[in-house]
Specification:
The complex is a heterodimer. Chain A has ten helices and no strands. Chain A is an all-alpha fold. Chain A is globular and about 55 Å long. The two termini of chain A are about 35 Å apart. The relative contact order of chain A is 0.13. By secondary structure, chain B is α/β, with parallel strands linked by helices. Chain B has one domain (about 5-225): 3-Layer(aba) Sandwich (Rossmann fold). Chain B is built from seven helices and nine strands, in the order βαββαββαααβαβαββ. In chain B, the strands form two sheets. In chain B, strands 5-6-7-3-8-9 form a six-stranded mixed beta sheet, with helices on both faces. In chain B, strands 2-1-4 form a three-stranded antiparallel beta sheet. In chain B, helix 6 (about 180-195) links the parallel strand 6 (about 170-175) and strand 7. In chain B, helix 3 (about 110-120) crosses helix 4. Classes of the chains: A mainly alpha, B alpha/beta. At the A-B interface, helix 1, helix 4 and helix 10 of A face helix 1 and helix 3 of B.
Chain lengths: ~260, ~230
């Protein structure tokens, strides 16, 4: 019985690995620069935004160069947005497989998210170069990156389960998502610091896990401080609940995925 | 050759489907107010009882929409029965239709690994059988070419070859052998016969009566979701 279980688990991970590498390999196969786009895209996006928001509209950034400040928020936001978009479409895109072979469906969602994390790590190399270039001081608090990143992934995974399952029933989900993400970027302190709002209103950001997460990244990377643990705990709690509910909904609908797609 | 314990046992199986007519909110919302029905239910399968023994080969025939493919889906486990139960003892390999599971941008080699793992093999198993798979498909020359440049025949050869090399205990074949040239078809039949002697169970869905008579021991007729 135990070996059977082990074999199942091993196959589970091998499937994730194969589907993730399919995603990664296939993406830029027919482009000249290939995978370099993963780095170039956010870089150019950052440069354009940095120009607009530091030369035209000026945001105060509390002592850090705006490019670094922006990149620290834009990279995790891009990861979040790309993961959600990719995961939402993941089941619909694999409709053919869905209808023919059975394996746990969340594997499609998980492998899409992992492939976006790989993109994110590659894109982050440029950020590290920026940090070195500006002689950014790094403290031990940088280790907080790992739990913060884990909370971001939990939040992403939970939402993805919801969206991917519902998108099979109504394709509107994917279009609504694009819209929400566009608005969401401005509701989240990606291009601006929360400090531009009077302190009595800043608590509102605590309700948005992505705002908490991005603030926490900046806190530990740019200021070398501890993140705000209370906000982070709330974000963890909210993410946990969403993942739990998302998983239950996903499991409940899984049986009819192949019928509705 | 065939022992007595059934590999597949289908018990009083029924499957209810709904024809979903509104696929978007834009259609769905007005339908809420006008009271137009958004769903219409129908039985794709009704009270099916079927037992298939190990090493048996069974053909499934019937007109379009008679529930043949739904039955395969239920056996493969991708959809759940509304009533009744399907019990399967053993590894199933569906011979998936052209393209499913293959990524057009990836090479034949990459797709063999991808598809092998999707069908339940481990990476090392695929590695061990890789030569056999490509030999059978006769595709050494094109194995590193993206499969989007393959002809449909080449595609089929590779897909078929991967599926039969997964060591399935049950092989599900849905109307697929029609593609591919005569020589390859013959090769497939020989291979399938060979698998049958190794106690592999074969379920073939087809319209081709001749093919089914040649390949299977018994044929189950489907009509409007019931079998006779």
């Amino acid at each position: 019985m135990a070996t059977h279980f082990n074999e199942k688990t091993r196959h589970y991970f091998e499937l994730i690995r194969e589907l993730t590498s399919r995603e990664i390999k296939a993406r830029y196969k027919q482009s000249i620069l290939g995978y370099a786009w993963v780095i170039l895209n956010p870089l150019f996006q950052m440069l354009v935004m940095a120009f607009v928001f530091s030369k035209i509209v000026r945001f105060p950034t509390v002592g850090t160069p705006y490019t670094v400040f922006l990149y620290a928020g834009l990279l995790p936001w891009t990861l979040f947005a790309n993961s959600l978009t990719g995961a939402t479409n993941s089941l619909v895109q694999s409709a053919n497989l869905l209808k023919k072979v059975y394996f746990p469906r969340e594997i499609f969602v998980i492998s899409t998210i992992i492939s976006k994390i790989v993109d994110f790590l590659l894109a982050s190399t440029v950020f590290v170069i920026f940090l070195l270039f500006y002689h950014q001081q790094i403290s031990f608090n940088i280790l907080w990156l790992f739990p913060i990143f884990a909370i971001q992934q939990l939040f992403t995974y939970g939402l993805s389960l919801f969206l991917a399952a519902l998108n099979l029933f109504y394709r509107d989900i994917q279009y609504v998502l694009t819209l929400i993400l566009t608005v969401g970027m401005y509701l989240t302190p990606v291009i601006y610091p929360t400090e531009i709002f009077p302190s009595q209103y800043r608590w509102i950001f605590q309700l948005n896990p992505m705002a908490v997460i991005i603030n926490a990244y900046r806190q530990v990377i740019l200021n070398g401080n501890m993140p705000n643990l209370i906000s982070l705990s709330i974000a963890l709690f909210v993410s946990g609940i969403i993942t739990l509910l998302g998983y239950r909904l996903f499991r409940k609908l899984e049986g009819v995925f192949a019928d509705v797609v | 050759m065939s022992s007595n314990n059934p590999v597949i046992k289908i018990d009083n199986l029924s499957k209810l489907f709904f024809k979903q007519e509104q696929k978007t909110f834009k259609e769905f919302l007005p339908a809420l107010f006008t009271g137009k029905k958004t769903k219409e239910w129908f039985w794709a399968l009704q009270n099916i009882n079927l037992e298939i023994k190990k090493g048996e080969s069974v053909g499934i025939m019937g007109p379009n929409g008679s529930g043949k493919s739904t039955l395969l889906k239920l056996i493969a486990g991708v959809t759940k029965p509304t009533k009744g139960a399907v019990t399967v003892n053993g590894r199933i390999a569906p011979l998936i239709e052209l393209g499913a599971g293959f990524h057009p941008e990836l090479s034949g080699r990459e797709n063999v690994f991808l598809n092998g793992v999707i069908l339940g093999m481990s990476r090392s198993e695929v590695e061990a059988k890789f030569k056999e798979i490509v030999d059978f498909a006769e595709l050494w020359e094109f194995i590193d070419v993206p499969v989007k440049h393959y002809s449909s025949g080449m595609f089929l050869r590779l897909a078929f070859s991967v599926a039969i090399h997964t060591d399935p205990e049950v092989l599900l074949i849905d109307e697929i052998l029609a593609v591919g040239d005569a020589a390859f078809q013959k090769k497939c039949f020989t291979k399938l016969k060979d698998l049958l002697t190794k106690d592999v169970t074969l379920i073939i869905v087809s319209h081709d009566q001749q093919l089914l008579h040649k390949m299977t021991e018994r044929i189950v007729q489907f009509k409007n979701g019931t079998c006779g």
